[in-house]
Design a protein that fits this description.
- By secondary structure, the chain is mainly β.
- The protein has a single domain, classed as Lipid/polyisoprenoid-binding, YceI-like (Lipocalin).
- The chain is built from 2 helices and 11 strands, in the order αββββαβββββββ.
- It is globular and about 50 Å long.
- The protein starts with 20 loop residues before the first helix and ends with a strand.
Length: 180
């Protein structure tokens, strides 16, 4: 069964996303509570968590692509959001992050890893996402996460007033899906 043209999945962040819609995308339709977050850490226990809400999943031949609109990510502080979008992610130039995975690698129910590629900030690199797809024959709950180093994607490490976050960022996603 081909994928619907659009999935409404609470987006990633930065990536990734983004990422885990892939396990359910080939035969399942996401619905209900959906969330995507990214977490960056800094000195002294600094923790920055961002969220988004614009994710699209499409099937392109033998590939499932999860696309996240980076311009709608929020961290809860307007100035930090503006810096994230304009200075670091450069969303006017690079509006989306896309995780692509071969459909043959996607399984549900499942608990394990899937390898694909993440295109972010004009750079495409391999990325492994850990995901879990649990449930009955026609309903499943999908969660997943991946870690990436933003320097691998030519993103400047964020720093403000002498406080610099670490370049490793964790991206997580969860959603419920049912078989149509």
């Amino acid at each position: 069964m081909p994928l619907p043209k659009r999935f409404g999945i609470k987006s990633l962040v930065l990536l990734v996303p983004l990422l885990l819609a892939g396990p359910a995308a080939a035969a399942w339709l996401a619905h209900g509570a959906k969330s995507v977050t990214f977490t960056a850490l800094g000195p002294g226990g600094l923790r920055i968590e961002g969220k988004g809400s614009d994710v699209d999943v499409k099937e392109h031949g033998d590939t499932v692509a999860v696309s996240v609109s980076l311009g709608k990510l929020t961290t809860g502080i307007a100035l930090r959001d503006r810096h994230m979008r304009e200075k670091y992610l450069e969303t006017a130039k690079y509006p989306k992050a896309v995780f692509a995975v071969d459909k043959s690698r996607i399984k549900a129910p499942f608990d394990g890893n899937v390898e694909g590629t993440l295109s972010l900030h004009g750079v495409t690199r391999p990325l492994t996402v850990h995901y879990t797809a649990k449930g009955a024959a026609n309903k499943v709950h999908v969660t997943g996460s991946a870690q990436l180093n933003i320097k691998d994607y030519r993103i400047e490490v964020p720093s403000y007033l002498g406080v610099t976050v670490k370049p490793n960022v964790t991206v997580s996603i969860q959603f419920d899906a049912d078989n149509n």
